Amino acid sequence: MSSVASTKAIPAAGTTPGTVQGPPQRRRIALVPTFALLLGALYCLLPVAWVVVASTKSGRELFSTFTFLPGTGFADNLKDLSAYRDGVYWKWMGNSALYAGLGALLSTAVSAVSGYALAIYRFRGRESVFNILLAGVLMPPVILAVPQYLLLAKVDLTDSYASVLLPLILSPYGVYLARIYAAAAVPTDVVEAGRMDNASEWRIFTRIALPMMIPGLVTVFLFQFVAIWNNFMLPYIMLSDDEKFPITLGLFTLLEQGANTPALYTLVITGALLAVVPLIALFLVIQRFWSLDLLSGAVKS
Amino acid sequence: MPFTSRRRLRQAAATAVAVALGASSLAACGSSDDNEEASSGPVSLTYWTWAPGMDKVADIWNKGPGKKAQIKVTVKKQASGDTLVTKILTAAKAHKAPDLVQAEYQALATLVSNDALADISGEVGGVEKEFAAGIWQQTTLGTDALYAIPQDSAPMAFYYREDLFKKYGLEVPKTWDEFAETAQKLKKKAPDKDLTTFSANDSGLFAGLAQQAGAKWWTVDGDKWKVGIDDAATQKVADFWGGLVKDDVIDNQPMYTPAWNKALNTGKQIAWVSAVWAPGTLTTAAPDTKGKWAMAPLPQWNAGDSATGSWGGSSTAVTNDSKNKAAAAKFASWLNTDPEALAALVKESGIYPAATAAQTGDALAKAPDFFSNQPDFYTAAAEIAKTTAPAAWGPNVNVAYTSFKDAFGKAAKNQSGFGAALTTMQDATVADLEKQGFEVAE
């Protein structure tokens, strides 16, 4: 663990305690990784920059002017997007917020409870449950979408908000993370102490363990939120009413309008740009918790 | 799709025969029971479609004829393409498919062989005469059954830049030989320009070209499927385009990319083999070329012939899950044959109607804005539409199309000719049919 902590100290060098550890000659060696990372950042950010620039172009400018030359149509694109089918785009945005917000919240709650249980209690089959969970982590959710559809069809829940929310509540990855985090952050001594004082198990969990797990749970929430926000296959199979579509699905229908009707590129690009704004905002807000989480982990070890 | 394959295996042999012989008496029985049910009270239907503005067309029905017949139709807008076929099949497996679906002609055999579509020949009478024979045959799959009603058709045509053809002294090619000569002539006069491109991304375009040449990719031989993707007609088409690409006479880059848009917009490519819906695509792809294009019939294999293929087009089908098949069939035939409905479809959804009368109707009297220089655009299109060659689709068009993209994509990039690619496509299609449990004739 000490090696992990010291490598972490390099990027953290700018903060406070790391500066003492970082000798100058190590920084010169770090030029290569820094360059590699910069290259990676460029690779990731270039498409985003393209979307930003392209969203300012009118349909006429989109394919005819220089790629990174800003256009003049942003306001019109926004207006057209809002006007499309009486503002159905904003409905999609609202739906995505509902699916991602409520879904991530519920899923974090389930992950917290089950992760805690798997980490703290010793019971028969605990390892088997955990191993099955691990298998679940390896299973891409895409291939579960169709079986889930067939199951929900049996209880007449397809094409409803619940059909998208229900399958997302149990997230193997969330439970896995919560278990790992609970095992590291909640000392058994503390739980034992609670028991000595005659606190009920539920009280120990909510009053003692849960606050200790918060940074980890924020991570779970964030992961789930992003995963649901970007989810495509599950809502695609489940929903047929476009008033219930999340944003991913809505933009897809703008692209695939059949051969007679050209794809609404400018609307899709502007729509895609607006769709990442909430994600960026969420990251900026929650980042605080996240770095806190990494730091506190490093200190403890 | 893996989730349907087991069921298919069990049903495949039986269904292949059913498709072949049109022996759908069971389905017909089922639907006549539903008839009595339907007439007893108000009926509510759901309709999956990707055509924009279809909700407005359905409103006309709901306020007019539908109100009288107590049949209300709710439109649920979908994304088009193969993914929708998968979605319909999944829904059908759970018995949750909507009453009506929009389906491209080449998807009908897939849907029928998975038992998703109902035979509505008993509910729909007398509409056959509204459509060209080559279109109608695609909805019956060559049987006595009827699995859908044609909605839009997409006869192929040759689009070219009138101004640039004049500038370079080119004639509009009447045969494919002339087409090749035109491409070479242009290369000599302006080496940086291309007549057009061969797009390995657009399986539908290649299928349409093969259809024009008289290819029959899927046919039924007794109770077996016969795959003729590498038949003589298709080989001729593949060799022709493969030769042009190999000799660098035309471009080898795919269509529908930003680069392609730019090539059209700047006049780097000066012609496009496309279908009747091209004006819509050109409006967004090449906005600066408005009024500079013209449409002509597709070049022919033999001088004096007149045949064309189709690239796209779709139909309205009734599913087996519908509890009101008669009502659904009634709406489907109204939608695609009633003059008011067709006029609304043209106006709201921008489709090119399959119904022959509507192709010269008032709604299409005026040429599209982008082609204002060719006032008789739709009169010419209607003439071309009449010459559409029959098409023969099978239950795994998607597999053939995917194989086309892979094999032809590689061959186009390497400029190595298309003969081997065509064989690959044939073999992949046959292998998949056999894997699905269909019997395939050699």
Note the topology.
The complex is a heterodimer of chains A (301) and B (442).
Chain A: H1 2-9, H2 18-21, H3 24-29, H4 31-54, H5 59-62, H6 74-83, H7 88-120, H8 126-138, H9 145-154, H10 161-169, H11 172-185, H12 188-196, H13 201-230, H14 233-238, H15 247-255, H16 265-300
Chain B: H1 2-21, H2 25-39, E1 43-49, H3 54-63, H4 65-69, E2 71-77, H5 82-93, E3 100-104, H6 108-113, H7 133-140, E4 149-152, E5 156-161, H8 162-167, H9 176-189, H10 203-212, E6 218-221, E7 224-227, H11 232-246, H12 258-266, E8 271-275, H13 278-285, E9 293-297, E10 314-318, H14 325-337, H15 339-349, H16 356-359, H17 377-386, H18 397-414, H19 419-435, E11 440-441
Helix pairs in contact in B: 3-15, 10-11, 14-15, 18-19
List its salient traits:
heterodimer, A: 301 residues, mainly alpha, MetI-like fold, 16 helices, globular, disordered N terminus, disordered C terminus, B: 442 residues, alpha/beta, D-Maltodextrin-Binding Protein, domain 2, 2 domains, five-stranded mixed β-sheet, 19 helices, transport (chain A), MetI-like_sf (chain A), transmembrane (chain A)
